[in-house]
Amino acid sequence: MSDLSMYSGYQSLELRRHPHGVLEVVMNGAGANKSGLSTADANMHRELAEIWRDIDRDPETRVALIRGEGKGFSAGGDLGLVEDMANDFDVRARVWREARDLVYNVINCSKPIVSAMHGPAVGAGLVAGLLADVSIASKSARIIDGHTRLGVAAGDHAAIVWPLLCGMAKAKYYLLLCEPVSGEEAERIGLVSLAVDENELLPKAMDVANRLAHGSQTAIRWTKYALNNWLRSAGPTFDTSLALEFMGFAGPDVHEGMRSLRERRAPDFPGGSPF
After folding, report:
1. Residue 203's domain is classified under what CATH number?
2. Do 127 and 103 touch, CB atoms closer than 8 A?
């Protein structure tokens, strides 16, 4: 097995090398909740932001494949972290920087990235899942951008990539309402590259990763770089959405959003608006 010492500091992500330069990144659920889904606690959030820079520098890696373990791809943010962000400016500033870096580091990673999404796909994991160069979902996957349900603007990857992938009308429908998108529907509207039966998900993702690993690395990486200029050109839109999201963490609605999630009920946000 090839050396993985450069990744020895990672705790919430498990790294596995495969032949031909394929690196598997597994969100291993160190912070899994009782439902068996891994949540993006403070450690995983930081690691998801940093891993792409290390992959970019890794001479043994040609392609990265990211997936979840257990019952789903990713369960979203840990409510303890959300509460800390709402109450502590320093935490909020740190997580804002990590959220910014996660998006830009995925976009700027020179190596192609393949995602394999099954079950729920929410939160920071979904950022990597949908920004991946080839995104593959099981037909039964449930892709959910949960920002407005929490009481904050849809930041992260939402404004930078959803309108480009599936069009403004669909993006607004799903992002404003937090409506779940099945993997099958996500493929139909162009939100993901492919949707397959769940038992075919990992074999298909590994097949795509291997095909990319066997291809011309300069041709593939330079094609990715050129295409991702579409995303870089939307950088100001992303920066605005992320700033508005984190402004929301300092507001009143996020507290009701957190309470309603903990109490497993619909939120009752106060009426009116300062603008």
Report:
1. 3.90.226.10
2. yes
| pLDDT tens profile 80-117 | 899 999 999 999 999 999 999 999 999 999 999 999 99
User: Among candidates 131, 105, 129, which has minimal Cα distance to 115?
Assistant: 129
How many CB atoms sit inside 10 A of residue 46's CB? 20
Residue 113 backbone phi and psi in degrees, to 5: -120, 135
Residue 272 is assigned to a structural domain of this protein: no
Query: Both ends of the chain: CA-CA distance in Å?
Result: 58
Element (H or E) spanning 92, and its range? helix 89-108
Query: Do the domain assignments include residue 118?
Result: yes
Residue 140, phi then psi, degrees to nearest 5:
-90, 0
Band the pLDDT of 70: cuts 50, 70, 90: confident
Cβ atoms 28, 44 nearer than 8 A: no
Please work out, in degrees rounded to the nearest 5, the angle formed at the alpha carbon of residue 124 by the alpha carbons of 123 and 127.
Answer: 95
Return all residues near 140 (Cβ < 8 A) that are at least 6 apart: 118, 119, 182, 183, 184, 198
Structural domain harbouring 58: 5-262
**Amino acid occupying residue 174:** Y
* Number of domains within the chain: 1
* Beta-sheet strand order (sheet of 13-18): 13-18, 22-27, 63-68, 113-117, 134-138, 194-196
Interatomic CA distance for residues 220 and 28, integer angstroms: 29
275 is a domain residue: no
Distances in Å between the Cα of 76 and the Cα atoms of 18, 142, 173, 251 are 28, 12, 20, 20
pLDDT confidence tier of residue 9, bands split at 50, 70 and 90: very high
Q: Are 82 and 92 in contact (CB under 8 A)?
A: no
H-run or E-run covering 200 = helix 198-214
Q: Is residue 208 part of a domain?
A: yes
